[in-house]
Structure formats: structure tokens, C-alpha cells
């Protein structure tokens, strides 16, 4: 399906950054295809008085384990003011956490448990309401819940890293960046809506393997997108398909809907780690020449791209106990790909072999070559920013922790947890994305 003629603003915007000027990016698929069957388990919601608090908590744990919800099957909960939480105990704690959602030490793992495994849906509803975007765009709540449920459902819950929890973490980080004083007063409602939406959906339907794996196994997505930004293109088009299927924006003018879809694609495609140097060079040049004018829509859009890139790789800038958990998750996902490659006698992708690289060396390389250069420029842009200084301080502390562990085969961290040396890439986009940079680190 060809898109109609874009609004002049959309044309100027897309031409200015060149993101969508590729052959495969001009066509959108109005359908979405998940790569795993839907889980359709009934919620244990009996109101029988024989159910004790202990049994209710067991039900909550069972539901989190199964990752099932009436919301995800298109059934809107009838309880006033609630989405999918089963009791006031959990609802109250989650609500309390949402009051602190703009703080950098926000524990998304705890929030995931308190929201019964649906932190992404709850967080997005809250942030859209905080910004008044539901009223501004006259969004229908039933359609909104259906769309968010579809997004949640299209993330693969069996992926250790690329799942809805990662999307929620990126969305929370994006919210923190949108609040920066350099941005907050100049962003339009459309800018904020696009930033949050792109963060929530930027990895939707991620298969848990990287682009080189899809290419060498002849996956249909690699052929469809001509081996270029395969996963990012799929995330974007899947999101557009869900927007259209849910009818969330169907009441808006056609030109506006197309503009939103194209800008959304530009943001999600910017998360392709292979284009890191391209964006970083442009960002640095803007800062050196002081040429950014955030009163201009194309410049605001570029900053949204940079903010999303920062949010996507910000894990090393989190507090150590959070950062290390993400490292363990991404490591497990890499190993799974490596195990598949071994099983089918394929060449094991870099960083996917558990016997190869140590956690500290890969993390140090990732921080040194990817995270530090990007966040140094972000810090220049947002100066003076307490948040940016906090992130840089945490980044250096975490790097010091990895350097202290370098070459160390095992033992315990200062918090008492056991450390065993394994292969782990700090790249938050998937194994292989930073292969060249990692090899350079190893010399």
C-alpha cells in the first residue's frame, strides 16, 4: 500500500534528515505478524470468600508467569480507575511509584511486579495522561487500551531482554529526557506523543536474534527489507499496522496520520546501532556550530532521535543494581542465539559464545566506544542538567566496577551477589550490532 502525498511539513522533515529516503521505507505494511502464537489463559479472578490473601498473591504470581490478561485479548477491565491490577494492595504501590516516575533511580523491575507484568501499558497510560495527550488528540480510551494491549502482546515475553519490560524502561528514560529544561518548553504535543510512542514500540515483535542471524538464515524479513535496518523497519511497520488495526488515530485528518506514521518511522529507524557514527557526527557538528534551533520542527525531531538513542542504550548509566540486571538479561538472550547457531551447525555470531568474551571486557568496550561518546554530547546539549551529570557519574562508576572485575574469573560483588565470568555484550540492540567496535577493543 503506497502512502499518499505527505504534508509539506512531513516532506521537509523527512528530506532534512534523510532517514526515510530508502527504497523499502516508503511503503508501509498495514498488517502485523507476530512470530509466536498468542497465549490465551484465563485470569484467576474468582471473588469467592474462600480465597485468602495468600491465594490471591499466588494467582498474581501465576498470571505474571503466564503473561496473560483480559486486556491483551481486547476485553477492557470494568473496574473503575484500573487497568489489569487485581487488588488495591498492588494498585496502591504502583500508583505510589508512578508519582516518582520522573526520577532516574526508578526501579522498573519492581514496577513490573507491582503492575502484574504490564508495566508498559500502565506507564504509557499514565504518561499520556500526565501530558494531557489523551484530551489533546481526542483519543478514544477503548481504542487506546486496545492499541497498547496489542503493543504489549507483540513483544515476546520469552525474550530475556528484548521484551515489553525493556520497552517500559526506555519509555521511562525518554520521559526523563523530555523533561529536560532545554526541551520541555519547546516540544509540541505531537513531539511528546511521538517520543513516547516511539520509545514504547521501538522493539516491538523483536525475535530475540540479531540482523546477521536473520540474513544468514534467509529469514523473510531480511529479504523484505533488503538486509538494511531489518529489525528497525519491522518494528516500525508493525507499529503502524497496530495503529491502523486499533483505529487509534482514525479520527485524525489523513495528512496528520501519515505525518505521524512517517515521523514515527524516522525515530524508530534511528535506533539502528549501525548508524551510530552518522547521528553522533551530525549531533557533534550541530553543537560545535551552535546551529540547533529547537523552534524549527526538523531540529526538534532530530533531538528526539538522539534522545531515543540515548534512552535505548542508557542501561550503563543506571544505578549498578539495575544496570547489572540488564546485563544479565541481554547476556542470556545472546547465549540463546549462540545455542541455536550451534544446534544447526551455523557459525556462532560474535558475543554469542559463552566461552569467548568476559563480561568486563565487553562492557568496558561498549561504554568506551558507544555510550560515553553519545552521552558526552548529550550532556553538552542539556547543560546545565543535574540529570546528565548524574548519568555521567553513574556511567563512570559502573565502568570502574567493570574495570575492577576485568580479568577476574569469579567471586562476589560488594553487594554479596555471586559473579561468574561469562560472555556479555553491553550493546542493548542485540548481538553483532557492535561486532566491529568490540573487535577493535580487543585489538
Which key features would you list for this structure?
globular; Catalytic domain of cyclic nucleotide phosphodiesterase 4b2b; 57% helix; 2 domains; disordered C terminus; 20 helices; disordered N terminus; 1% strand; mainly alpha; 443 residues; two-stranded antiparallel ribbon; 2 strands
Notes on the protein architecture:
AMP binds at residues 162-166, 203, 312, 363. InterPro entries: HD/PDEase_dom (IPR003607), PDEase (IPR023088), PDEase_catalytic_dom (IPR002073), PDEase_catalytic_dom_sf (IPR036971), PDEase_CS (IPR023174). The protein is mainly alpha-helical and 443 residues long. The protein has 2 domains: 8-312, 3'5'-cyclic nucleotide phosphodiesterase, catalytic domain (Catalytic domain of cyclic nucleotide phosphodiesterase 4b2b, Orthogonal Bundle), CATH 1.10.1300.10; 317-442, 3'5'-cyclic nucleotide phosphodiesterase, catalytic domain (Catalytic domain of cyclic nucleotide phosphodiesterase 4b2b). 57% of the residues lie in helices and 1% in strands. The protein is built from 20 helices and 2 strands. The protein has helices spanning 8-17, 53-66, 88-98, 108-114, 119-130, 133-136, 141-154, 164-178, 181-184, 189-201, 211-216, 220-224, 230-246, 254-269, 276-289, 297-312, 320-343, 359-382, 386-405, 435-442; strands at residues 410-412, 418-420. A two-stranded antiparallel sheet has the order 1-2. Helix 10 (189-201) packs across helix 14 and helix 14 packs across helix 16. The longest helix is centred in the last third of the chain and has 24 residues, at 320-343. The protein is globular, with a radius of gyration of 21 Å. Residues 1-6, 8-87 and 408-443 have low confidence and may be disordered.
Amino acid at each position: 500500500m503506497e502512502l499518499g502525498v505527505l504534508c509539506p511539513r512531513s516532506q521537509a522533515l523527512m528530506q532534512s534528515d534523510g532517514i526515510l529516503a530508502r527504497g523499502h521505507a516508503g511503503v508501509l505494511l498495514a498488517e502485523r505478524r507476530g512470530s509466536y502464537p498468542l497465549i490465551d489463559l484465563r485470569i484467576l479472578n474468582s471473588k469467592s470468600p474462600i480465597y485468602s490473601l495468600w491465594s490471591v498473591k499466588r494467582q498474581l504470581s501465576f498470571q505474571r508467569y503466564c503473561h496473560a490478561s483480559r486486556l491483551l485479548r481486547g476485553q477492557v477491565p470494568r473496574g473503575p480507575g484500573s487497568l489489569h491490577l487485581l487488588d488495591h494492595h498492588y494498585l496502591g504501590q504502583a500508583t505510589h511509584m508512578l508519582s516518582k516516575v520522573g526520577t532516574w533511580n526508578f526501579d522498573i523491575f519492581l514496577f513490573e511486579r507491582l503492575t502484574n507484568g504490564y508495566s508498559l501499558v500502565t506507564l504509557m497510560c499514565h504518561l499520556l495522561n500526565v501530558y494531557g495527550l489523551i484530551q489533546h488528540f481526542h483519543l478514544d480510551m477503548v481504542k487506546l487500551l486496545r492499541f497498547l494491549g496489542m503493543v504489549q502482546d507483540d513483544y515476546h515475553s520469552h525474550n530475556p531482554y528484548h521484551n515489553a519490560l525493556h520497552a517500559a524502561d526506555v519509555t521511562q528514560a525518554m520521559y526523563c529526557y523530555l523533561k529536560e529544561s532545554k526541551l520541555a518548553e519547546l516540544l509540541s504535543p505531537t513531539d511528546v506523543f511521538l517520543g513516547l510512542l516511539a520509545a514504547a514500540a521501538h522493539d516491538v515483535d523483536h525475535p530475540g536474534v540479531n540482523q546477521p542471524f536473520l540474513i544468514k538464515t534467509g529469514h523473510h524479513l531480511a529479504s523484505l527489507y533488503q538486509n538494511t535496518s531489518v529489525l528497525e523497519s519491522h518494528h516500525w511497520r508493525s507499529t503502524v499496522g497496530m495503529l491502523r488495526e486499533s483505529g487509534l488515530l482514525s479520527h485524525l485528518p489523513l495528512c496528520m496520520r501519515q505525518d505521524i506514521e512517517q515521523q514515527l518511522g524516522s525515530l524508530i529507524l534511528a535506533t539502528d546501532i549501525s548508524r551510530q557514527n552518522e547521528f553522533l557526527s551530525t549531533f557533534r557538528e550541530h553543537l560545535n556550530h551552535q546551529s540547533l534551533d529547537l523552534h524549527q520542527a526538523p531540529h526538534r525531531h532530530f533531538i528526539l532521535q538522539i534522545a531515543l538513542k540515548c534512552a535505548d542504550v542508557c542501561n550503563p548509566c543506571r544505578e549498578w543494581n539495575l544496570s547489572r540486571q540488564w546485563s544479565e538479561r541481554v547476556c542470556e538472550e545472546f547465549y540463546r542465539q549462540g545455542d541455536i547457531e550451534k544446534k544447526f551447525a551455523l557459525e556462532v555470531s560474535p558475543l554469542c559464545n559463552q566461552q569467548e568474551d568476559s563480561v568486563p571486557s565487553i562492557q568496558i568496550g561498549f561504554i568506551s566506544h558507544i555510550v560515553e561518546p553519545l552521552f558526552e554530547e548529550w550532556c553538552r546539549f542539556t547543560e546545565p542538567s543535574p540529570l546528565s551529570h548524574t548519568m555521567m557519574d553513574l556511567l563512570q562508576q559502573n565502568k570502574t566496577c567493570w574495570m575492577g572485575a576485568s580479568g577476574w574469573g569469579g567471586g562476589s560483588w560488594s553487594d554479596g551477589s555471586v559473579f561468574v565470568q561469562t560472555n556479555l555484550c553491553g550493546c542493548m540492540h542485540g548481538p553483532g550490532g557492535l561486532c566491529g567496535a568490540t573487535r577493535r577493543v580487543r585489538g
